[in-house]
Design goal:
Elements lengths: L15 E2 L9 H5 L10 H18 L6 E7 L2 H12 L6 E5 L2 H13 L3 E5 L8 H10 L5 E5 L1 E2 L4 E2 L2 H10 L3 E5 L11 H4 L3 E5 L10 E7 H4 L13 H10 L10 H17 L2 H21 L15 E5 L8 H10 L2 E2 L1 E2 L7 E5 L6 H13 L2 H4 L4
Parallel strand pairs: 1-12, 3-4, 3-5, 5-8, 8-9
Antiparallel strand pairs: 2-10, 6-7, 9-10, 11-14, 13-14
Helix pairs in contact: 2-10, 3-4, 5-6, 11-13
The structure holds pyridoxal-5'-phosphate.
């Protein structure tokens, strides 16, 4: 059943979002929402089941060993559903952090009363696999290890493969927050031995906000019945209802968002899958950095630590530079950029995921070049 409004009738957005989500989506994704679905009707439940299956096949080279749980809310809700539902009362989690999203996991553990230790790497270094190995060697009471794949705070890509490998060597359960990378950076949960991977609808898959999803290793999830510290964020219960009800959600499901997500998955296939999308994002990001460097900007991270998702740029070294002014001017050029989020340096961020293409980045660079006001304003 197709949406009845033709996409060409939809208005253009006044600007492109160069943020890590919500991000710019295609008109077809938006048009897919122009229909009402009943949350327990068969048509809708079949759509949900097909989405779950597509996600598992995307995430895992061994799809039989994995399953998907869709969960209402933003990405944080899904991370909290995992943290609160998979660590038993006598468990202990090691959380590797190097930015706000890792710290948020630590905050969840604290709120939920889960025994946790935090291994922090600061804001501008990748998480330390060597330290992880040393800790796991001596502290045998640790049961789970959590890490963020792309720390969106800075744009840093963390060595998840190595983290998973070391954690598996010691028999630990591995939780990966791949919110801002899944669908945009190739990753195979089966190959890496990841037990729980979390992402959401409005990041690299280019859907709209409203729900997230957890790719779970079946065997791990099967042992989580009754562990949850929350009713609505009970991962096991949500999964069991979806399995037994053939795509049924507990409580109201974000039907419009789910339909848009299905269209977004089709567009990901049409683009050629995750590898092709990764190539587009990589080209966007490299073009962005090369162009910004030509205009005198410097990146916070060195190239080897940089993800193809979002880039942190240092404020230009000028007393006249103001981020608010820069932001407003760039918005007038048709682009919304993102403030920085770290304490180590004054930065702003530019994302390059979403329905964003090389020509958009080139237009952005032309727009930025017109707005280098601190270079032309007299400093008095
Ligand atoms: C976006 C994001 C989240 C979740 O953020 P929400 O605002 O709750 O959707 C979690 N982790 C990372 C790494 C993210 O980029």
């Amino acid at each position: 059943m197709k949406a009845t409004v033709h996409v060409s009738q939809l208005p253009d957005n006044p600007y492109i979002l160069l943020t890590p989500g919500p991000l710019s989506t295609s008109k077809k994704v938006k048009a897919a929402m122009l229909r009402d679905w009943c949350t327990w009707d068969q048509d809708y439940n079949q759509l949900v089941q097909s989405i779950r299956s597509r996600l598992v096949h995307m995430a895992s080279s061994d799809p039989e060993a994995y399953t998907t749980v869709l969960m209402q809310g933003s990405g944080t809700f899904c991370v909290e559903a995992v943290i609160g539902s998979v660590i038993p009362r006598n468990g202990k989690i090691l959380i590797m952090t190097n930015g706000a999203y890792g710290k948020r996991i630590a905050q969840m553990a604290e709120v939920l009363g889960i025994y946790a230790i935090v291994l922090d790497a600061g804001e501008t270094s990748p998480v330390s696999v060597k330290q992880l190995d040393e800790i796991l060697k001596v502290d045998t009471s640790i049961t789970h290890v959590a890490v963020v794949h792309v720390e969106t705070t800075t744009g840093m890509i963390n060595p998840v493969a190595e983290v998973a490998q070391v954690s598996k060597k010691y028999g630990k359960t591995v939780i990966v927050d791949a919110m801002s990378s899944f669908g945009g950076v190739p990753l195979d949960v089966a190959e890496l031995g990841i037990d729980y991977l979390i992402s959401s609808a409005n990041k690299c898959i280019q859907g709209v906000p409203g729900f997230g999803f957890i790719i779970a290793r079946r065997e791990a999830l099967h042992s989580c019945k009754g562990i949850a510290r929350s009713l609505s964020l009970d991962l096991y219960d949500q999964w069991e209802t979806m399995e037994q009800g053939n795509g049924k959600w507990r409580y109201t499901s974000p039907t419009h968002t789910v339909r848009a997500f299905d269209q977004a998955l089709t567009e990901l296939d049409d683009e050629g899958g995750v590898t092709q999308r990764f190539n587009r994002f990589t080209l966007n990001q490299r073009t962005l950095v090369e162009g910004m460097e030509k205009l005198g900007f410097k990146t916070l991270l060195s190239t080897d630590l940089q993800s193809p998702i979002i880039t942190s740029f240092l404020y230009p070294d000028s007393p006249v530079f103001s981020f608010d002014e820069f932001y407003a001017r760039i918005k007038q050029e048709g682009f919304v950029i993102y403030p920085g989020k770290i304490t180590a340096a004054a930065t702003f961020r530019i994302g390059n995921i979403g329905d964003v293409h090389l020509a958009d980045i080139q237009r952005l660079l032309q727009g930025v070049e017109k707005q280098l006001f601190w270079k032309t304003t007299k400093n008095n």
